[in-house]
Amino acid sequence: MVKPPAARSAVPGPGRLGLVEPTAPAELRDLGWVGEDSVELLWSLSRAANADLALRTLVRMKDGLGDGWEALDKALRTDKALRGRLFGLLGASSAFGDHLVADPALWTTLAGDVTLPTREEANARMLASVDAHPEEGVHPEANLYRAAVTGSDAVAALRKSYRDQLMLLAAVDLAATVENEPVLPYQTVGRQLSDLADAALNAALAVAVATVCPEAPCPVRLAVIAMGKCGARELNYVSDVDVVFVAEPADTIASRIAGELMRIGSTAFFDVDAALRPEGKRGELVRTLESHVTYYKRWAKTWEFQALLKARPMIGDLELGRQYVEALSPMVWTASEREDFVPEVQAMRRRVEEMVPPELRERELKLGRGSLRDVEFAVQLLQLVHGRADEALHVQSTIDALTALAARGYVGRDDAANLAASYEFLRLLEHRLQLQKLRRTHTLPPADDEEALRWLARAAHMRPDGSKDALGVLNAEIKRNAHRVRRLHAKLFYRPLLESVARIDKDALRLSPDAAIRQLAALGYTAPENALGHLTALTSGASRKGRIQALLLPTLLEFLGDTPDPDAGLLAYRRLSDAMNDQTWFLRLLRDEASVAERLMTVLGSSAYVPDLLIKAPDVVRLFADSPSCPRLLESKPEDVARGILTASARHDDPARAIAAARSLRRYELARIASADILGMLDVPGVCRALSSVWAAVLNSALTSVINASEKELGEPAPATFTVIGMGRLGGGELGYGSDADVLFVCEPREGVDETVAVKWANGVADKVRSLLGAPSTDPPLEVDTGLRPEGRSGPVVRTLASYEAYYAQWAQAWEIQALLRAHHVAGDADLGLRFLHMIDKTRYPEGGVSEQAVREIRRIKARVDSERLPRGADPATHTKLGRGGLADIEWTVQLIQLRHAHDIESLHNTSTLETLDAIGAAELLSEADVELLRDAWITATKARNCLVLVRGKPTDQLPGSGRVLSAVAQIAGWGSDDAGEFLDHYLRVTRRAKAVVERVFGG
């Protein structure tokens, strides 16, 4: 702000006054404010938020006042309070400037000893504007008035009276920006605005009654219930006024009066919104009290009870309004006991956050992070949680509720005071932004619009501070208060909980055990007693680790609260913390890297698969930090990982120790891959490639170590070369978390070695490899499956290359030929593996394609698989592997096309389903649309199948129809946990469309 020098009477120039418009000198001369007798006036003008706007409006007022300007000029020179109100108003609001120009004589209402009207005085002024008098012959508590003025004249009169009173309040509110007038407390402004809104709608109701019921008396009892900010008496300058109507009887007349009230109010004052009524905008506008009660008992959702926290009888039949509040209030305070309370509240909060476009989130005062809604949401949730046991919390306004929560020991007094201060600061900025043009807005100007931000700073009483001008002070305060709200939002819920279990400060606030359990239950913990035990264990003792945990846990618990299973996540975090008790870097990393803490809690609260892996491979947590180039979880490449596993196992001569080393690195890699998957960093093909590479590397390590040990024991080279051919998903590079490794074992005797000896040795190697990999372990299993070998499970486990060639040439059945389409070398002797693949090419890619007889056999086998292998009780619509449009449908269809066309189209010589689909599309064997439908279904089903393993911790193929598991799967799959139904609908839609293609292509 520009301040007058301590002892100077010289007339300041326009620049010193903050006047930048080139017309300013002429405008000052027009007003006669150029002499030394105008110095004090000019310095007051310089302190207006926008001095040019104030000066320009004064010139317009002078033109309108004519001879009356002399009286205003004289009053401004002698009445300091008038200068503060008028200059403050004109510099901060172009809308009120226009209002004064239209009726410049209104300046007299700002002069002298101004007092704000009481609720009764505001009501009387509004009623007088339409000559309204009490309705006679109605119920004693009806509180109805009948207006003598109706129609467009009434709307104009109401608008003028409302705007006059609103202007007076704004002028008093803004006076402190210019002169040292007392700052009007935020709560006073909110109450005044709410009382004025009540008065305005009461007058509008009088007009509506006269319009709908020209003959007295009005035959209905009508109560208008204020909701939202108006109900809590904390209204904004420009805001919707939320209302609910109750009538006896709720007939056509009552509906017409309510509709007319909304029309008049929305035209004359502000939007009158009845969307919070039962069933929202689809519901009846007016209901009886009995109808309201019935709805809330049977059908209301949690958010509707949360909205009732602020319900207040407003106008009309106040006795009926009190009956409404008394009937519904008990339901409000039992809402937190509802089974769906937590998920509904969390879903509502997420929907509110998602309403804000990403580019506006840092500028949004109402709905962004660290915003007004964060404060209101936290306070209301705590009221609902503890209010059923404590009537002292049955208050409506946010500040009153914070005060009550602190007084009753549910939040710390300092926390409540700081949160209240930040809330009032954000509301002040909101009010100033709305006053500028009297438009509803909650968005700060862009960071590069310094002129608009500087205006806001001056309008919000920002004074220069040391090296910062008003703009610098504003920016610093916005950042400080948003950060404080975000920090206290977590602390408000969790700090009292932790101080109840951690003896950090003997004077600290501590919730009672019952209150702590209530609060944990409301935060999403289904076993709050267990959760409280985990918090006690984590923060126990006076050790430094316990103190650090107590500092970390508010943030960690908030992150956990947004996960599908906070109970399991907290238990997993406790187990991980216990395992890391001697590792100082762990808590330090969580403390210093907020992204690590958030990602770790997301993983722990989403998956039963990952926690055990992290406990055994805790260094993966270090990868949760960001690196400059890409997320560290993605820095490892599959080929580098495979090489590392082989190198680590090669350091050990003993096969058991070699495989233990390979298992350790596999554990690390599974934890890394699954974490990246849960956090949305890896797509489905990337996950499949990484898992397949790890599996192949472990298999290769096991085979190499067993052969080396055998050669050492024999004292000579092995009697045969040995290779492993991957089949199924392993061969296609498309393994999932729960997949076995389908393989063929192939050997070839070295020169001069008897085939019987070579095969016997190779069988011993195969048995040893399978035994070591399949040994009992708490790790995800390493099952080696040889069921796709010639003759199936009745055939020999190991065959020579020549034996395979002879068998496939003479005896290969249709299913065996089909299985070979995914055969690929994964371990052992590379030359032998390559020769095996070349040998089977003539079988799996038959000249001229497979016969029609073979096609019929494949279709018969598929039909048998569909009917016999689907588990009893499974839902074929949602079984990811064998269900309609699931993985088997897609893969069998792709493989049938390969069998028919691969001999002629070399690009179909591919073991990957997705890559083969691309080749099918390129060769125009299917339309692009069909290929896309099959691809989409395969990716969707694979993603769902992988997510099921991540969530449940064990292989499963059946998607549930509802419940927590489905919500968790939906969240990991990239849908919100409250969008589980939409995720399932998407899955059914995608697979249904794919099934239509399968029936046409595979079924002929």
TrEMBL record:
PII-uridylyltransferase/Glutamine-synthetase adenylyltransferase domain ranges (all copies): 347-493, 877-1002
Cofactor or coenzyme needed: Mg(2+)
Enzyme Commission no: 2.7.7.89, 2.7.7.42
Region annotation Adenylyl transferase: where it falls in the sequence: 505-1004
Keyword terms, alphabetized: ATP-binding, Magnesium, Multifunctional enzyme, Nucleotide-binding, Nucleotidyltransferase, Transferase
Adenylyl removase, as annotated region: 1-497
Stored InterPro entries: GlnE, GlnE_rpt_dom, NT_sf, PII_UdlTrfase/GS_AdlTrfase
GO process terms (BP): regulation of glutamine family amino acid metabolic process
Ribosomal protein as UniProt keyword: no
Cellular-component GO terms for this entry: cytosol
Every Glutamate-ammonia ligase adenylyltransferase repeated domain range: 88-323, 598-838
Catalytic activity as recorded in UniProt: [glutamine synthetase]-O(4)-(5'-adenylyl)-L-tyrosine + phosphate = [glutamine synthetase]-L-tyrosine + ADP; [glutamine synthetase]-L-tyrosine + ATP = [glutamine synthetase]-O(4)-(5'-adenylyl)-L-tyrosine + diphosphate
Domain of life of the native organism: Bacteria
Molecular function GO terms recorded: [glutamate-ammonia-ligase] adenylyltransferase activity; [glutamine synthetase]-adenylyl-L-tyrosine phosphorylase activity; ATP binding; magnesium ion binding
Family: Belongs to the GlnE family.
Function: Involved in the regulation of glutamine synthetase GlnA, a key enzyme in the process to assimilate ammonia. When cellular nitrogen levels are high, the C-terminal adenylyl transferase (AT) inactivates GlnA by covalent transfer of an adenylyl group from ATP to specific tyrosine residue of GlnA, thus reducing its activity. Conversely, when nitrogen levels are low, the N-terminal adenylyl removase (AR) activates GlnA by removing the adenylyl group by phosphorolysis, increasing its activity.
Protein name: Bifunctional glutamine synthetase adenylyltransferase/adenylyl-removing enzyme
Organism this protein belongs to: Rhodococcus oxybenzonivorans
